[in-house]
């Protein structure tokens, strides 16, 4: 997954690593992929302020027929179990960077959330269950913070979410591949209050009225991307996506736009 300081840009740019890039680890071998590019995305989920942000990724992998496939990068780690057949199971470790009240962008600082305070980051652990039916792959992924979090003078507990989706790949030529992903995310009340809620303390120091969202589906996202394999180890990618906030997340006073778009372009090199 790419590093970028907002949820929309992160989830869409992660499409790049769904591609079976040349240079991935073979049995008993290690691999390393470096990638970088630019994305245009909202400053935060629900923001109407768009900015161009840098994307960067370092991802190392190792595959073993007996133990499965291991990968680790600048955004997290994954252990894919060696299960034969269409069913897949993986253990995941990610980092949720949280959110600042003043968000730095290449266009300057976005201060709409001033007075809300900083939502601290947290390590997340979880698992993914998938089913492969070429050219599609269905998956359900659940993640939970490994520590209790607090925000705006209130306890959030262990923030958690479950993402389910369907991914499809279609080769347009020997070098060009089209990939699409449709997903939706359910979040618990702690996650919702952290990213879309306003506590009474925050209401006193910001421009927003108090708001306490509950658990529920928070968004639906559709993304599409192209991967061009220029050389055996060099590839270029470009993609677009749209996200619609749902339920209590869409009704939050910090949300300016319930429907947001994004676009990205990048290049990757695999060793």
Highlighted features:
single chain, 271 residues, 55% strand, mainly beta, disordered N terminus
Short description:
This protein is mainly β and 271 residues long.
Characterization of the model:
This protein has 271 residues and is mainly β. It has one domain: Beta Barrel (Porin), CATH 2.40.160. The chain is 9% helix and 55% strand. It has 4 helices and 16 strands. It has helices at 7-13, 189-196, 200-205, 247-250, and strands at residues 30-42, 50-64, 68-73, 76-80, 87-96, 103-105, 108-110, 122-133, 136-145, 149-151, 154-157, 160-171, 176-187, 216-231, 234-245, 259-270. The strands form 3 sheets. Strands 1-2-3-4-5-8-9-12-13-14-15-16 form a 12-stranded antiparallel barrel. A hairpin with a 3-residue loop joins strand 2 and strand 3.
The class by helix and strand makeup works out as mainly beta
Q: Give helix and strand order, one letter per element, not per position.
A: HEEEEEEEEEEEEEHHEEHE
Number of helices: 4
Q: What sort of overall outline do the alpha carbons produce when their principal axes are compared?
A: globular
- Using only C-alpha atoms, the radius of gyration works out to 19 Å
Query: Per CATH, which architecture?
Result: Beta Barrel
